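Customer ticket, subject: "Can you confirm the structure for Nucleotidyl transferase domain-containing protein?"

Message body: Hello, I'm evaluating your service for our small team and ran a test protein. I'd like someone to confirm that this is what the system normally returns, since I don't have a reference to compare against.
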Amino acid sequence: MKVVILCGSMGTRLKEETEFRPKPLVKIGNRPILWHIMKIYSHYGYQDFILCLGYRGEMIKEYFYYYEIMNMISP
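Agent reply: Thanks for trying us out. I re-ran your input and got the following:
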């Protein structure tokens, strides 16, 4: 089963945080909100995610692209 996550809003109520990054990449602790959401779903066995991107979607793509590379490099 696939999990569809909507990531397209501008996050206007979080304007201070979303001026330079999309709402899904706003950090909670050291990781973005989106990472935490996906981690919760993966805890219950879901591994396939569809991210519906909108506002600054390229930044979200870059985050996960580099996240994968960094996890391959570090043990």
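A couple of notes from the result: Strands lie at 2-7, 27-28, 31-32, 48-53. The CA atoms of residues 21 and 31 lie 13 Å apart. Feel free to reply with more questions.
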